[in-house]
Structure formats: structure tokens, C-alpha cells
């Protein structure tokens, strides 16, 4: 048995996170693991590799496309998660748990450093943050997972075949790590690379996200297979609120980016290259075209949308400029095509026109490329299937071609999200509405102050599958509008147990104007909206609520470890 476990360990754990990671399995001609940890530089160099795990802008696809498993965007083919088409995994946990072991090597050895604690505590905080980051991803993917406190060796037989720990045990451990990280990390303005470094502010923001996720998961999944017996959602809501309070009221460099230009500030935030001076940006991945480190988001966001478009559901979640709901279906019966898009620009919350292209928008100033019509009937790379072509993350002053020539930063955490996490957790905890914090977001785009409206008076009312308060309904709306295309929407509907948002429904596009495309005959729905998946999904998305909230535990792991159990529905 022991020899078998050693083989399993070698195959699964010593493979490491990176082929070049000599600390996981040191070559004989390099410094050994026991000799490595003597200096602050050693600790700094070790944690640096974990920055690779943070989100980045794509070179080979639109970053917005990562939000496909939600109802804000759609491709011309159905998403496999929303349509219940994900398949049983036959592999291992190697890719998920190799980084756990790698970060645990640091946590097992950092105390050997001979330099003063003050010189290396930043890197201890980074390691604590990254372990929390890695495990939060595992919890979202699998739910219950084994929690490992140290780097396993072939002699750790009991731990190699341990059962999964409760997700609440894991999340509590994540939150504890983040508390320690806040103590050890430098504040953003004192961190080694400013907001390119893990810092106190981002650890607090991450805590608001993790705690809100788990509180809402346990609240809204309490009656299904994915909840945890005995869980206390309010404990997590309180943790999110506490972290938010600390970030909002503490001595930190935070704020909402605004130059006083409501027509452009929201858009400019996401297209800026050097984000180092922006207080709202708590952590971002930087690019530098001069050093040939760029991405292609202009290419995918302007002339090459590659069959990706925003949905009618997303567009109609926006309030009018007066802060009141609009009857979009009624408007669409007489206002269609480009006229409808121009109406959105003139009458609707300005965050919408700064997130999708409107006829007349300049896509590239140096060559005077102007958006004229949505490319509904263009070839696959140039095609936009809904009429709502996504503008966010572009910059009209930078290269349009496929040349890795866009250097807009990739925001990983921003203060705006932390405010929304805080507001949602607070209303879940005790019904209090965080008007001051929500109004900071409204003020940037010149919207009226946040108001709790009657959801029953909303002509575009969305059904979450269960009743919620009007205050929570409006906070969820604000979150959707503010954080659109930031690859958080899938997290949101999963933690809300809100598959009713798309089950048996199809993603729709804008109201088609046949006079603008007289030779084309697109598929439309009964209201005249573009309906790109009508043939593929005649009955709408076929999500399986008893299975698809979590991925399957890989079959190989179940075979190797008889103490593991499978996730519901698999």
C-alpha cells in the first residue's frame, strides 16, 4: 500500500505547477530546497511565480468571452455549462492541487529566512493571499475539497487518502489566511510594485468577495444538494461587511475613478494603460507595448468580435437616465436597428453606451474607423450575433490589428466591486441599504441617486426562481450593470442558485430593422428580436440544476482514493 501511495504521490504532486519550478523537484546541479530560504530575495522570487495565476487579457480571444457561462453575453453556439452539456471528468486533480503543494512549500519553509521579519513579511502575505486564491477557485469548481496545511510527502499516507473537507471548513481557512495576509502585506502605496503587487487593500477586497460568495451560496442553496448542513450564512455576510467597513473607513488609498466626465470615465477606466495612479484599481496586470508585452483586446472588441455579442437581457437591465425602468419591448416595436442603439445612447444609464458600440462611435482615431452597423451577417471572425457589440476594454487610440499592441491593464480587483460586495452583504445581513457607497458608482456616470424601486413595476423584471426584497433586487441590478463583462457573472448566478435566469430561455439580440439589411433574412423571435440560437436551442437552455452547479470530481481521483465521494448528479 505504501509503495502504491508513493507512486500516486510522484505522479500527482511532484509534477508541480511549472515545468521549471526547481523547488518542487530540484535538479542535482542546482541549490537544494533546504538551502534556499535564507534571504528575503529567496522568498520574493518564490512568490513571484504565483502572479501568473491572476486573470489576464487574452491574446487569442476576447476577455469578455470568458463570461460566456452567464446571460450577459452569447456566442453563436450554446454555452456547455448553461446548456447542461459538461461531461464527467476522467482525469486527476493534478492541475488544481499542484499549486496548493507549491505554495505550501513556501509556508513550510519561510521561517528559515535569516533576514529581519520586516523585510520579508510582504512575501509571506503574498503566499497567504495566493493560497486563499488557489483554494477559492477549487471551492467554486468542486465544493468540498481536501484542505492541506503543508506540502505532502510520500510518507503522508493518511492525508493522501483523506476525504474531502467541508467547503465551510475550507472557506473559513481561506478567510483566516486573508486576515493574516492583511497584517503582513504592505498598503497599496507602499507595496513593492504599487497596485501591481498584492497589498492590504486587495486582500480586504478579496475577503469581501469570498465571504459574500459563501454566505449567498449557503443561503440560496440551503434547500438543495449543494448546501452544507449547519452552515451559518450570516457569519459570512458579517465577515464581508467587516472587511468592507475596514476598506471603506480605514487609512487606505481607495476611491472611484472620475474626472468629472460622465460620458467617458467608466469606459476610460478599462482602456487605460498605466493604472498605477488610479485609486479605484486595487490590483491589475500591467502590459507594455514598448517591451512587446501587449494583448489583442482592441482587435476582438472592434473589427473582429468573433461571434460574440451582448444580450437583450443584459441591455434591458439598465435603468433610464432618470433612474426609472424603461419598457424596452414596447419601445422596440417602433424603434429598431440603429435607431434603437442610438436611443440607448441618449436615454439610458451611460454605462451602457460606454460598454457597447453605438453607430457613430470612433473605433480607431488614427485611421478614422467608425462603427456604422452591427456586423450581424459578416463572416465568423467579423460577426456579432446580437447587434449589441461589446466596447468595454478597447482604446480607440491604440492599434486595431492582431499585433499584441494594446497595453490596457487587466483589472483584477477594483474598489467599485468591493463597494458592491459590501452593499449586497449588508442588505443580506440586516436589510440596511448602503446608499452612500452605491451613490459613488451612480455619481461617476451622472445617474440619479440609488433608489429602491418596486420590482413588480419593472417591465423587464427578472425571475431568480424565488422571492427577494426590492432592495436586494436593485442591488443585484446595480451589480450587473457596473460589473458587466468583468467575468464575475457566472460566480453571481451560481452563488444565488439563480438558474431560473436562463433555464428554458435563449439569449436574444436587438430589434432588427429589415430596411438596414434588405437582402438578409435573420432568425427573429415573436417580438422581432434577433434570435441567434433559436435553431440550436428551440426550448432554451437545458441546464441541470441538480448537477451543473459544480464540476465532477475526476474519476481517476475516485479510483485512487476510496474516501472521496462524487458531487451531486454526477
From TrEMBL:
Residues 287-570 form the RagB/SusD domain. Keywords: Cell outer membrane, Membrane, Signal. It holds the Pfam family SusD-like_3. Its main location: membrane. Residues 36-211 form the SusD-like N-terminal domain. InterPro entries: SusD-like_N (IPR033985), SusD_RagB_dom (IPR012944), TPR-like_helical_dom_sf (IPR011990). GO terms for cellular component: cell outer membrane. Belongs to the SusD family. This is Starch-binding protein.
